[in-house]
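## retry 2 of 3
previous attempt timed out at serialization; input unchanged, resubmitting
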Amino acid sequence: MIATSAGHTIRLDAPAKVNLYLEIVGRRDDGYHLLDSLVAFTETGDVLAARASPTLGLAIDGPFAAELDAGSDNLVLRAARLLADTAGAAPGAALTLTKNLPIASGIGGGSADAAAALRLLELIWAVTLDDGARHGIAIALGADVPVCLFGRPALVSGIGERIAPAPLLPAIGVVLANPRVAVPTPAVFAARRGPFAPSRPLVMGGGGAAALLDALADRRNDLTEAAITVAPVIADVLRALAASEGCRLARLSGSGATCFALYDDGPAAEHAAAALAKAFPAWWIAPTRFRDQAPAIAPL
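## retry succeeded, writing output
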């Protein structure tokens, strides 16, 4: 059992989320778009640490710390306050977020951080929520928070609140690439044009890389053109990934600006990432792999 006494710190990875495809299948009367997406999580991500404290506070370090406000509107603090209000707990904890992921980048960084906060603080505050209450907090924080709380491959529908386990993903290589341009999600949805995609089940004929690539070939990210309208450099990222040695598929994740590419294995992804980093030194580029399981809480 992990001790959570005063002064003892626990940590949890907050992995980057990748939308392997994202199709817009409709829109509700309130304006929210209805999605159909296959979501995966990677070994790359932020890290959140927490310990008991009389007051609630957040410190941020890491490569992208300077770009993120630690004020009251930060999703980690919002998650803490909402959990405390729901559970009737005293909202005290010292939180430290190591921000390794770009901000507003389409890979669920803030949502993953919020999900990590909920998991850590439930343990520190000895709070036990039922699944419905926990899910309600997550969707109130943002459409990506429920799947980040789930933390493993998932089929996502509705506005992000409907989650079903997806088949395990093959051990292939992945490269994430971001041109260090923040892309606001509302602006991308506002720029989207065209009809809605049909809602259809995902069919994967087996568990290997070929089966995954075949299944993805018939899908797309319906926000790609809109995201390029908002941030034209995304088109450059997609072209560079598609042209990289060994690339099997290049696509936008979420509303961008992060794009991803798939490769046969980890070494192929690392080789491609090194070449891309040399060609585009101003971009954030990370070779990684998919996770099959949600991250586990660990002592620090």
